[in-house]
User: Fold this.
Amino acid sequence: MGVTAVDELLPVLADALGVDRVEPLAVRPLSAGASRLTSVLDVDADGTVHRLVLQRERTTDRARIDVATEVRLLRAAHAAGVPVPMVVAAGPSYLVTSHVDGETIPRRILRDPALATARSRFAADCGRILAGIASMAVETVAPIPTTDPVDALEQMLDRVGTPRPGLEFALHWLRMNRPPHGRTGVVHGDFRNGNLIVGPDGVRAVLDWELAHLGDPREDLGWLCARVWRFGAPAAVGGMGTLADLLDAYAQHGGDRVDPAGLFWWQVLATLRWGAICLEQARVHLSAEFRSVELAVIGRRAAEMEYELMRMLA
Assistant:
């Protein structure tokens, strides 16, 4: 993040923080995301130090919502009791939020002795939070995309243009075994270990709402429970918790009662979706739309998802 880019935001931040002048103290890049550049920004606002998080768009992705929609989502989520960072300022290509202390790196969350209590309650925390997301009033976030997840996957695979028989087989299986549609609500779209800030007391904030849409809230449950987000740990929910704890908490806090066996279709969907996303990330790199070793490496993981889908559907 260049100094010039931060300097351009200083008058906006001064207005948002209600002060005459804001001085930048430090800018520290965070781990790169696929669509946004993220930095921690420390500023002095008339003698008070504020730690903020600045995100800037770096790609144009038709599957991702714009900043204005994300702002509406964050504010509606906060109103629904979902833990999220507070919006400080936003523009067409940037978003500034409050900084929430905690850990986001999954392997640390899975191993740090200081987070043992958080791990024990992770599944229940996620069930409660996902029930809150599903309860968000649609009218407070509209307009927001309405997405059929199977159609979206077919379109993504067609756009990539690389034949992958294992992924195509899974897509056919999903169409042939589709469960009845449940209620329509807000779907976060990327709710998983890695997009959650975790502290010793549990999950403190839900990040990365760029893939939010309207759909069946069970999609978020299946995505959270995909094997890829367990990061090598055995437990079904983010490598830390049980399906029973997740689904019980989800129902207790207003979500629909979901049968663990009925979640399997959504886990297959999640696995195929990550495989398609891996291919899309590789396409972005190979097409020179945005050159990135990270995107190229992610692309190689599509083969892992083909293997996992064959294991699941054997």
